[in-house]
Specification:
This protein has 172 residues and is an alpha+beta fold. It has one domain: Aminopeptidase, CATH 3.40.630. Helix content is 31%, strand content 27%. The protein is globular. The structure holds coenzyme A (COA). Coenzyme A binds next to strand 4, helix 4 and helix 5. Coenzyme A (COA) binds next to strand 4, helix 4 and helix 5.
Length: 172
């Protein structure tokens, strides 16, 4: 299993994941419209976010990575390089999603573990990861990856968020 940069090599299984994720009600992870006839452009747009290119105003640089098992797309991870006021309170450094058909098999735990390694490469020693208070699976994922609960805060749009910090081992 590995995290890779978005690439047309994985187009078919990525689009398969998209169907399941969109049907599950989550479109935000797409970030921008997909042109299936120019999938390279979609990938390039996501890769550009790492360098701050094409991001909405007030967004910080962000690395978007795909979890693969073999050549099959399993899920997405977003690694924000720094925290804004809003990310510090609600969003955290790392967000992830697993395609519905692949859930409940340990991939969520693995995607965060691999994402922490990517964060370490960027020199991030303390990583903030948050989840909805009702998201039991995500809370378990964060705790299994060493998350220490700091507090729970009200998210004006969506109930309560649990805020966890993870001490990250920097490999030099
Ligand atoms: C949350 C999410 C990433 C979990 O992915 P996953 O691949 O199913 O996670 P795992 O298989 O690694 O499971 C992690 C733990 O949660 C448990 N779990 C999985 N689904 C669960 C559910 N629906 N309810 C309760 N616990 C659940 C698993 O049993 C496992 O616990 P264990 O280690 O004690 O056995 C996935 O459901 C998802 O993408 N949800 C939508 C997006 C989202 O919520 N992202 C997280 C934002 S913070």
């Amino acid at each position: 299993m590995q995290l890779v940069s978005p690439s047309p090599l994985y187009k078919d299984s990525f689009l398969e994941s998209v169907k399941g994720i969109v049907a599950d009600g989550n479109v935000h992870f797409l970030r921008t419209a997909i042109d299936e006839n120019n999938f390279q452009k979609y990938c390039d747009t996501l890769i550009g976010y790492k360098h701050g290119i094409g991001l909405p105003e007030e967004y910080v640089n962000e690395t978007v990575l795909w979890l693969l098992d073999g050549n099959e797309h399993i899920g997405n991870l977003s690694l924000r390089h720094e925290l804004t006021e809003h990310l510090l309170k609600i969003g955290g450094h790392i967000g992830y999603i697993i395609a519905p058909k692949h859930r409940g098999k340990g991939y969520g735990t693995k995607i965060l573990a691999l994402g922490l390694k990517e964060a370490a490469k960027l020199g991030m020693e303390k990583v903030l990861v948050t989840c909805d208070k009702t998201n039991t699976a995500s809370a378990k994922i964060i705790e299994k990856n060493g998350g220490v609960l700091e507090n729970e805060v009200a998210d004006e749009n969506n109930g309560w968020k649990k805020r966890y910090w993870i001490e990250n081992r920097i490999v030099k």
